Amino acid sequence: MKYPVKVQLVEKSRREGLDIENLPFGKTFSDHMFVADYIDGEWQNCQLVPYGDISFAPSMMALHYGQSVFEGMKANISTQTGEPVLFRAKKHAQRFNKSSERLRMPAVPEELFLEAVNSLTVIDKNWIPQSAGSALYIRPFIFASDESLGVRASTNYKFIVFTGPVGPYYPKPVRILVAQKYVRAFPGGVGFAKAAGNYAATLKPAEIAKEEGFDQILWLDGLEFKYLQECGTMNIFAVIGDTVLTPPTTDSILDGVTRDSIITLLKEMGIKVEVRPISIDELIEAHKAGELKEMFGSGTAAVVSHVADISYQDVVYDLPAIEDRKIGPMIKEKLTDIKENTVEENHDWVTPAVSTILEKV
Description:
Elements: E1 5-7, E2 32-39, E3 42-50, H1 61-65, E4 68-70, E5 73-77, E6 84-87, H2 89-102, H3 110-123, E7 135-144, E8 157-166, E9 174-178, H4 196-200, H5 203-211, E10 216-220, E11 228-231, E12 234-240, E13 243-246, H6 257-268, E14 272-275, H7 280-288, E15 292-299, E16 303-312, E17 315-318, H8 327-339, E18 350-352
Parallel strand pairs: 1-3, 9-10, 9-16, 13-14
Antiparallel strand pairs: 2-3, 2-8, 4-7, 5-6, 5-7, 6-18, 7-8, 10-11, 11-12, 12-13, 12-15, 15-16, 16-17
Helix pairs in contact: 2-3
């Protein structure tokens, strides 16, 4: 690899005695992390080291002006080889850099990104759970590291990747509240990017929804409060009649890797898919006519999360029981089989985790 990497492994793993098959999402982290610095216009100081705290100055620019972007991806154990595999790692690398560019941050070379992700997956493969719906969650992120005040792009950045075993993000179908006051993203903004600030802005309305008995928010567009955008942190799908609908990705909607995979697989199965704007009125009318068969969210963390009901203008609209649904359960099973390398796929989405730097250790 072009970038030399210093490797320091843990003396004793924290994995021993830990039941990784029964863990809450995002609370436990693996033994190692990958760290690199962007200084003087180039990436350097690449290290694979024990997972641990990092130090920073109170004046670090990311804390003040929000230059921070992350990705989320997963690794599983192949049922064919017993070795770790990654799902669409290159697609995640590309989206990571697309997000970074919007926030005026440097690209992480694909070679460096993939080496970091692969090496961590290989070195901490014994942290990968194998129970249903579980995986090794991988979190790459980048942030501004200049020690300076003043609204401008930083000149220095830090890139870090760490991992952790996770179970299902939503263990049961979710109840969603349609947003009528708050907005997630506007045209011309950063809604398409995995910018940290996007998620901070959703926390208050999400808490309000939970206080009212709902799990997540179905976001509408910020101009007319008319068209569906995303559901919580997920892309949204609706099955009306025999057609699967999902909104087009715009600068207000995240280009989900899972979303793209679902659209591709459904079309290959001969299922009708329409990528077009969906109004909340169309959705409600379809429900009243008995044509709204399913709704589900998609994302790396959730994979496929079934929607139990939606609330709009103080009316709750129940959706069919999960056992009566066709599309959501089928596509979730198909994605899981692909990610675990149980079935063959012809897209080269699943790749074995291979590290070049660990071969030299």
